[in-house]
Write a structure and sequence with these properties.
alpha/beta; Double Stranded RNA Binding Domain; TIM Barrel; 16 strands; 4 domains
Amino acid sequence: MREIPLSEKGKKKIPIKSLFPKRKNRANKIMKKVFIYDTTLRDGTQCEGISLSVAAKLRLAEKMDSFGIDFIEGGWPGSNPRDMAFFEQAKSLNLKHAKIAAFGSTRRANTKVEDDHQIALLLEAKTEYVTIFGKTWLLHVTDVIKTTAEENLKMIEESVAYLVKNGVKVIYDAEHYFDGYKDNPEYALQTLAAAKRGGAECVCLCDTNGGSMISDFSEIIRKTVEFMGDTPVGVHCHNDSGLGVALSLQGVENGAAMVQGTLNGIGERNGNANLCTIIPNLVLKLGYDLFCAPNLKKLRDLSLFVDEMANLRSDTRLPYVGSSSFAHKGGVHADAANKVKRSYEHIDPTLVGNKTRVLVSDMSGRASIMMKARDMGLDIDSKDPAIKEFLDELKELEFRGYEYEAADASFGLLLEKYLKRNEPHFKVRGYRAIVERDEIAGITKSEATVKLEINGDIEHTVAEAHGPVAALDLALRKALVKKYPSIKNIDLTDFKVRIIDSGAGTNAITRVMIESKDVNGEIWGTVGASDNIIVASWEALKDSFEYKLSKED
């Protein structure tokens, strides 16, 4: 193979403009300014089970812009009609900071760049920035796209140069860069040099297979940053080895000026490097300058918004933004955190829009109960003998299958019962649920009857639905709504069933968790447990409505 020169004398140098500052040609000169490039709308949608509508992508782009994301990769023009529609409608977005980037590949082998349909579609997107990827690993050059090493270098340089000539700024993604570098370092660097000659403003090194280890990764980054001189380098990591975040941080620590990733780490296979973890680590732990740093308190809100748009259940264990990130269960931990927050919290959770939570269980002590009560706005005396009785009852209920970690509402009602502060808003006289199946018609319907006592009056109601729990829910609402009209504003948003002891067969204890939400956006959880699933469901339903009514007093 003929060696491709890494620089060409007499060739006019294309100046680096845009957002990227000049860099000194020293690998050990770490830039304090780091740019965040979000690819949730493109790489994130390659995650199994995720599909974003055009409207959802537009709303997410606005939310990311408001948070302070620097670059938003909108999709691949030409890959599907949805992405083309996004770029067309994105022109009307009033973004304050973020730059929308279209994504695509270099020209096809042995094709004139001006004749390449995919390159033309990138220009049709009319974005200020275009990100194109090209091959770094000779395995892909010769065995996948079946061309020559020299032709691949031409594909990179000519594609970048053509886009720059037509008025767009180019970020070049070096696909499989680390695998390619390990295979042939010289050729890997030559692919970057080709992108630089074409006028790329930044080259991003992609760990496409997500298999890199930290030591190799760091060394390659350092050498590449030094080689690229005044051209900024970025990193794009996947999480196949569980190191996406760690590698991204190593990239920055070794000179990278840009980090690509997705919110909540969604993406193909095991996902992309999680920006919701990377951003607070860069700002709070490493002291880097990010444009979004002043908005860090909105991070958890942004994370939840992504889940809402993607119709996903939030991962409670996500670092920084998960609801379990600052949750304390063990009595010793809760007691220590109550005295000195940083004893068991590595940051102040409010810095990222999160909060301390105390989980009550059979492991809880008096300190945990006191912290939980205060968190719920309950003012109680730690010396009240009722607290001891309550703790004993709590542990007995947990032994019988109840769990209060995600059932704050049921916990609060139980505590109020022992403190004898509130009378229940209704008394249950009885209830019944019937399931009827017509096999010939293939129809199942359920009927429920509920009898309540409300302020001395008896309410006896009947309701029908497809399932018995839904029928009980409707009948309970009918009984309560005359006296308590706000009941109409409660929605059941989640219903979870768990068998506690599968070895017991059909006699096993069933735990039912219900999540409810009102028109104000307040969410609360309730629990029931029994060897009868209808009884367990009723307990959780009853607590959900009682909690709502107690909050209105």
